[in-house]
Amino acid sequence: MLVGIWKNITMGLLATLAPALGAMPTMEADAVQAAPLANPSTENAQDLGPANASQTVTASVILHVQNPTALQNYIQQTETPGSAQYHKFLTTSQFAAQFAPSSQTIQQIEQELQQYGLQVVSVSADHLDLQVQGTIQQFDNAFNTVIDLFKANGQVFRAPKKPPQIPVALLTNVLAVVGLDTANAAQSLTVKTPNVSGMPSPKAVLPQGGSTATGTPGSYTVGDTANRYDINPLYQKGITGKGETVGIVTLSSFNPQDAYTYWKGIGLHVSQNRIQMVNVDGGGQMDDGSVETTLDVEQAGGLAPDANVVVYDAPNTDQGFIDAFYQAVSDNQVDSLSVSWGQPEIDYLPQMNQGQSYVDELLAFTQAFMEAAAQGISVYAAAGDSGAYDTARDFPPSQGFSTPLTVDFPASDPFVTAAGGTTVPFSATFSLGKVNITQEQPWSWQYLQNLGYQGLFPIGTGGGVSVIFPRPWYQSGVSGVQNSAANQAFTDSQGVLYGSPFTYNLPSNYAGRNLPDVSMDADPETGYLVYWSAGGGWLAGYGGTSFVAPQLNGITALIDQYVGGRVGFLDPVFYQLMQQNGYGANQPFNDLTTGNNWYWSAVPGYDPASGIGTPNVANLAQAIKSMG
To answer: Over 60: is that where the pLDDT of 35 sits?
Structure first.
């Protein structure tokens, strides 16, 4: 299975990976190829003319993994009980020696780049990410492009006017070049309770009586998460994440003191120097996305109160996003890693970008995730907050866009555990009626729309079928795993993106990677407290699958401590335990069998609305320990 999935990594293309890369439309010579399509603001931008040719910039040159088939097999063996490689994870230097270009090859690449005046200023420890410096003119010459400045919605950014071309002499070893553009790359996957008429705003409630939990929907804390998902038995055994390190990849900076205030405010006692900031490519901005970084740290660090926390914050660019993961896996300091930023996976396809393909960037990410798996770093990503229709958040129907069934990246990557969201039982009275949810179910604000509140489609947990990534080995033969649906098309009927209408017909009946893998509470109506000083302090009614990814991150720190070492990429383990153990209060997982995410329905066993289901963490930890 593995060979068929990833043999094309050595080619630097996804042309044989999925039918999504069928016929490509003709590329317009002066199209703005700023980045994989992230939002309409970067398209139809005002061209301000050539960028300063003498300006010095730094780009990232990502090299091909070597022996990818052997790497894929090694990853699978690390999660196969009884294998000689079971939990025998590699160091970064071991990974580089076995699966990265040699020092001699890198020297040859440096010499080739020097012919254009470009200098390699640093090489990552895994030998896959080269930081290359030069002037804009030198990059123009080396990659046969023209870099201009553009302006859209008040943002000025640089971008190539035509796709960069890798020099022939480098094609064998270079996978992607990122950093020639500075347009935004992704969005945080955080949602607040809806601001609609007649919908009450939740008030922040802090824990009382020595508890770390509030028991109040909309003001839940990590203490409530521990109560709901069977974490407390681990705490009672002294399992608190001591000796473990959780990592956060994010595209905004934050104020670490906010996390300390949150932990203190809910009654957690933590070390006052547990947070380390690593500013990748100069670090992220302090902006609206800072609440994402804040809650990620509060959740992961709150569920594992004695774990260390390393925050890899980077600029919100393609280069920053990719470099952050390569930095994290090269450092090999964190035992688990989560990210709550993403964008629709189809945004990387040529059909969405006037013929320009960004699938080399998808593969650049995937290589980092594969390295993480080989080194035993568990990686989690939020599955999205637009239900089964991931593009709807960026491209709403009100602007003439269709809403095809789509999924979010990086959650759709086969070497990442996709974190889905649920609504937990609650009752509430709103101006338009009463809500009474009696069973935990996939998060979908369909229940609010059914009351008469409008504008909530398709907010809910991401989930569905990738049309890019093939079904991975751990989902093969799993009942409930789906193929892509028929008759799905992304249509820009008003020409918002490129000035004229276009349609991309998505592949039908494609046996793609299904997501999510596991789920936990993400509905803002049954959501969480956040302490964010820039937003006013204690805030209630926050949610989104962005909470679930860091929660699983913190939970993994507990499992690592309980097992006595890294457990690595857990998807193969999760699916094996589901199939072997079934469901129940004494088993690792609970099944969700009611509700939907606007399209996919929860059914017994696996489904693309809730994945495997929700974890019973103490049982899960014991089951994983017993496998070794």
So the answer is: no
